[in-house]
Design a protein that fits this description.
With about 210 residues, the chain is α+β, with helices and mostly antiparallel strands. The chain contains 4 helices and 8 strands. Strands 1, 2, 3, 4, 5, 6, 7 and 8 form an 8-stranded antiparallel β-sheet that branches. Strand 7 and strand 8 form a beta hairpin. The longest helix is centred in the middle third of the chain and has 16 residues.
């Protein structure tokens, strides 16, 4: 996105984490053995761009800065985070995060926590940045593995800069994935159907 907004949502994160319960509970010693690393989307599996092809960066350890607008690691255990970034030659970008937790219960709680952060992101942006108008939309659940959900976020500054983002959270067993697509524009520019297909592929492809 052309605009970078850093929000502080410690209180919201703490409440969400307490509600999630097992998100902040460390796995017991000798918990489930380390599984094979989850697989990532390829460039061709992102929503097609009308004039430019996608390129994919390497799979990298750690949490991606590109998710910082709505999703963060604050208040969450230091899980096994890996990510891959995507871009076109123009203004469109994307990122996929995978998080391997200790148990399926932890993954379920973490997926809900991330979805709650995305759901409340527009309100937190407006609270922290009075010159920005933000709107979120719920595009519903997807019947893939243990489930996924797609949401949209539109932001517009007082100077007229406008950005549209699609985000999804999905889960397969004890692994959670978050996918983000974004570019300049508004909701009418969002490829929702194609992004739902991308999200379904991302969750199915994990293992």
């Amino acid at each position: 996105m052309s605009m970078r907004i850093r929000t502080s949502a410690l209180t919201a994160l703490t409440v969400a984490a307490l509600a999630a319960g097992t998100v902040l509970t460390a796995p017991a010693a000798g918990a489930a053995p380390k599984a094979a690393a989850p697989k990532f989307l390829s460039a061709s599996q992102l929503p097609p761009h009308p004039t430019s092809s996608w390129s994919a960066g390497p799979v990298t350890e750690g949490f991606p800065e590109g998710l910082g607008l709505c999703v963060s690691t604050e208040g969450v255990l230091d899980y096994d985070y890996r990510h891959r970034e995507f871009r076109t030659d123009l203004d469109t970008s994307g990122v996929q995060l995978t998080v391997v937790t200790g148990t399926a219960a932890q993954a379920k709680a973490l997926a809900k926590h991330y979805d709650d952060l995305i759901r409340t992101c527009a309100d937190r942006i407006e609270e922290s940045s009075p010159d920005v108008e933000a709107e979120g939309r719920d595009y519903g659940k997807l019947p893939v593995e243990e489930g996924a959900r797609v949401r949209g976020l539109h932001t517009e500054t007082s100077r007229g800069a406008t950005d549209i983002t699609l985000l999804s959270v999905g889960r397969d067993g004890r692994t959670v994935t978050v996918v983000k697509w974004g570019q300049m524009g508004d909701f009418k520019n969002a490829p929702v159907a194609a992004f739902k297909k991308t999200t379904t592929t991302a969750v199915n492809k994990l293992y």
